[in-house]
Amino acid sequence: MATGARLSQRRCQPCSPPPLPSPSLPVPPSFVSAAPLTGMAAKRGTKTSMKNMEKELLCPVCQEMYKQPLVLPCTHNVCQACAREVLGQQGYIGHGGDPSSEPTSPASTPSTRSPRLSRRTLPKPDRLDRLLKSGFGTYPGRKRGALHPQTIIFPCPACQGDVELGERGLSGLFRNLTLERVVERYRQSVSVGGAILCQLCKPPPLEATKGCTECRATFCNECFKLFHPWGTQKAQHEPTLPTLSFRPKGLMCPDHKEEVTHYCKTCQRLVCQLCRVRRTHSGHKITPVLSAYQALKDKLTKSLAYILGNQDTVQTQICELEETIRHTEVSGQQAKEEVSQLVRGLGAMLEEKRASLLQAIEECQQERLSRLSAQIHEHQSLLDGSGLVGYAQEVLKETDQPCFVQAAKQLHNRIARATEALQTFRPAASSSFRHCQLDVGREMKLLTELNFLRVPEAPVIDTQRTFAYDQIFLCWRLPPHSPPAWHYTVEFRRTDVPAQPGPARWQRREEVRGTSALLENPDTGSVYVLRVRGCNKAGYGEYSEDVHLHTPPAPVLHFFLDGRWGASRERLAISKDQRAVRSIPGLPLLLAAERLLTGCHLSVDVVLGDVAVTQGRSYWACAVDPASYLVKVGVGLESKLQESFQGAPDVISPRYDPDSGHDSGAEDATVEALPPFAFLTIGMGKILLGSGASSNAGLTGRDGPAAGCTVPLPPRLGICLDYERGRVSFLDAVSFRGLLECPLDCSGPVCPAFCFIGGGAVQLQEPVGTKPERKVTIGGFAKLD
Description:
7-stranded antiparallel sheet, 29% helix, 15 helices
């Protein structure tokens, strides 16, 4: 009976609201078991570490501890109630999340819910009526039956960006259960010794001993038995330790309400089994959540271990930043004093100039006033009975004629001048001071544009005009709104040299005037990285982006075109500087094309270089017009070329191929003989990498394309001749990518050659440095003009 009486006294009233529990009294089992407190020192250390991370646990909206935080697509967190409040302020209705996420226990009354819910601002009545008239159950901007519903936009308070929540709004977001556990452990650490009270007892409530996840409430022993009677479904509820933060046992998919089991790497989102087979994730990289958990945990552990293992570095950097702050304060104060001094100097100069201008105006004013006063005095003497008029009247009374004549002569002159001044009256000085006006428009503009000096912005290197040939030519420009630069600094270094300890060593070219620079004598077959920065009175600006340039694989061979061997003056036009040639088809090619089906001969025009190579390695480059019909670029034995094209170059057998070095197929059996010619065939903007000719017999570069195909024509072609090895390589002169490698008979002098069939044009690469002397080769000997 005593027990029954005690139960009747402490029995709760389901209809009456329980007292509001303190949110700072939870004692979560996870925190107690994970990090037990042993001794006062451990308690103080745990408290300190937990208190230091308080700013990480504050909601960016309400600035309070997170309560049921949701993970936004931008990876930031926000309380569910705060998220609803933000969406309500944005005018969205019915997208505040799953109502079941709020407590539905017997203690879930308006007085026990979050205090933030009472601060929610609802839309204004007129706005609500307008939204409801646009379509009941819809959100702003969406009409009933719309094919493309509007995506809900949520303004993230942390990153100040707009994130898309999709059509479901907050219902499609996951709860951050880990953050909830951290918040609960933090609350327990800052209030050790507190107790969680039963939410169903009459006042004064007893200490809670159990919790129920299904009921989402805490109970004492008697209240738990009362609300979980035997023989009912509630009796199957599993009791837990008391807590005020009831969380689901695991993360559930917001779309299908199933437990998430996989992680989509493409979408970076947890998915369930049904989400995995949906079309939305088709073709995505999906892994089990265990693999994602282990990988992310390992990365986080390694990163955290690195940070904890470099605490001295962190402290050193903090000291450096603090020292930088002190220097910033001192430098800022000095800059303020300098600006104040300069402005005071400008003010003093303006004051001095103002005083001198006012003095000039004062002197001009006094001079005018004196002149006008004298004129007034003269006019006052003309008044009746005073001054000159009175004196003249008295003189007229004189009756002695000689005396009158003597006195009146001088008086008459004065009266005449006064009469003339009266008839032609004009003030002696102007009252206007227009000539003293100042034009300060230019000075005001200068004062308006008065600003701090800025360093030049990072230059932009012109990659179209920057290239490497016999020398490196670097060209750049400043951005449109960049301050001007007085001069530039060019830095360069090789990237293919063995790395040395310490920072990379750059070679510098100081005080470069203009927007281009020439780097002389670069190493062949190397890769250079270059950068530029500008300088003016404010100092040096930022560096430009690094540009990598490949230098030619061999020394550059300088030569001119010599059209005296095998060239037809009617069809070939060589430029005045002898560095370009154009083939003009004319009537002979048209006649040949008309008789082409009847086995006619087709003309081939050849242009040779005026320099022959007899040793070492040489490189040169040229540009072929993409509209050329058929052009062959290469090298050959000088004697064979002169032999073949010296006589009757317009009549050549159709079977003749300049690539093979012979005009019959009888010599194909001789495998040992090297071809005297090596040509690359170009036509209609394509390069033919054929394998039928002896010069092209399957000898492609290591990284080049396969034989028997066509590749696009690059802007410039490079030819590299290795005389000792008897090899010729054809390269893309821009990227130095290998196109073709051929054998060559180097038993005699070898010279460059260009063949034309039909219209075409070739331009030799201009040397970057000083132009060489023009040479002409005759019979294998070179002589100067």
